[in-house]
Design goal:
Bound molecules: ligand PPE
CATH class of the largest domain: Alpha Beta
Structural class: alpha+beta
Order of helices and strands: EEHEEEHHEEHEHEEEEHEHEEEHE
Helix content: 25-40%
Shape: globular
CATH superfamily of the largest domain: D-amino Acid Aminotransferase, subunit A, domain 2
Low-confidence stretches: none
Mean pLDDT: 97
Distance between the termini: 27 Å
Number of domains: 2
Largest sheet: 9 strands, mixed
Length: 306
């Protein structure tokens, strides 16, 4: 995976890629004391555009507040401008953007107030997150032996770096077992989300997805709500049991990195006819056009880099 770029934005400076380093004694490394975003930009007829930039910049700052930072030196507008600058100076069209706010300059003894927040933003060209064949064939998933965080253990509305140890456990186990992705259940035993995606079930022409209390409030999830409504599919937020996955007509997962991918099989049970189903295909089609600014209805989601 080539993650190179010309520059990484670090606290207001554009630092050459090889020089964008952080000291070993940074609490972010030792304790996962950082929050991040995953954002994509796409080539459009009007040049590169960052998809749902404001929502991602807002969630980054919200994550930092949830982590406990009491005052942040950046506004949503400043973060958004820095993200656009990072894409522009690197000359990227389609790319993945990774801003991180991390605890710097102190913050040992496990007290956030002992350090300051620092912000860095990288971008790189990142293709198919769930594999080359994911879009064409769908992916195979297992229900993980690991449980998703209880919100009073690791706060799930924040993309806190340390939260992702849980995703590492589940994904590594899943891939070692021969699957492509893991589905995690919440502490009550209902379906929560995947290691880096929200999940939807399709049954009798309706979309069902877990409510957000135990999971990340995915921005792709919210785009899919809008697209589904516009296509005439009702969306219900309600608990989903493991066996409701097995008898679904279709299951698909959504996220910035993964985009929208059908599940062909869960725990060795074919979903529907084992191919990406018609509702998933219809939603994928609109989503892929929307991210590239091809649909006037959704063009407000595209922030042109200029
Ligand atoms: N749940 C989790 C746990 C999650 O990490 C993501 C994003 C989502 C749901 C979907 O959220 P959204 O991107 O706003 O629709 N996962 C990001 C990180 C993946 C990674 O490997 O790192 C992403 O998709 O960028």
């Amino acid at each position: 995976m080539a993650m190179e770029s010309k520059f990484i934005w670090m606290n207001g400076e554009l630092v050459p890629f090889e020089k964008a380093t952080i000291h070993f004694l940074t609490p972010a490394l030792h304790y996962g004391a950082a929050v991040f975003e995953g954002i994509r930009a796409y080539n459009t007829a009007k040049g590169p555009a960052v998809f749902r930039l404001t929502e991602h910049a807002e969630r980054l700052l919200d994550s930092a507040r949830i982590f406990g930072f009491r005052s942040l030196p950046w506004t949503v507008e400043q973060v958004s401008a820095a993200i656009k600058d990072t894409v522009r100076v690197n000359g990227f069209g389609d790319c993945y953007i990774r801003p991180v706010i991390y605890l710097d300059g102190g913050g040992w003894n496990l007290n956030v107030d002992g350090g300051q927040p620092a912000l860095a933003i990288a971008a790189w060209e990142w293709g198919n997150y769930l594999g080359e064949e994911a879009l064409a064939k769908g992916i195979r998933a297992n229900v993980s032996s690991f449980t998703r965080h209880h919100p009073n253990v690791m706060m799930t509305k924040a993309k806190i770096s340390g939260n992702y140890a849980n995703s590492y456990f589940a994904k590594t186990e899943s891939v070692r077992l021969g699957f492509d992705e893991a589905i995690l259940l919440d502490p009550q035993g209902y379906v929560a989300e995947c290691t880096g995606e929200n999940l939807f079930v399709v049954r009798s022409g309706k979309l069902i997805t877990p409510a957000t209390a135990p999971v990340l409030e995915g921005i792709t999830r919210s785009s899919i709500f809008q697209i589904a409504a516009d296509l005439g599919y009702p969306v219900l937020e309600q608990p989903i049991s493991r066996d409701q996955l097995y008898i679904a007509d279709e299951v698909f997962v959504v996220g910035t990195a993964a985009e929208c991918i059908g599940l062909s099989e869960i725990d060795f049970r074919a979903i529907g006819d084992g191919k990406t189903g018609p509702v998933t295909r219809a939603i994928q089609k609109v989503y892929h056009a929307a991210i590239r600014g091809k649909l006037p209805k959704y063009e407000a989601w595209c922030a042109y880099v200029g």
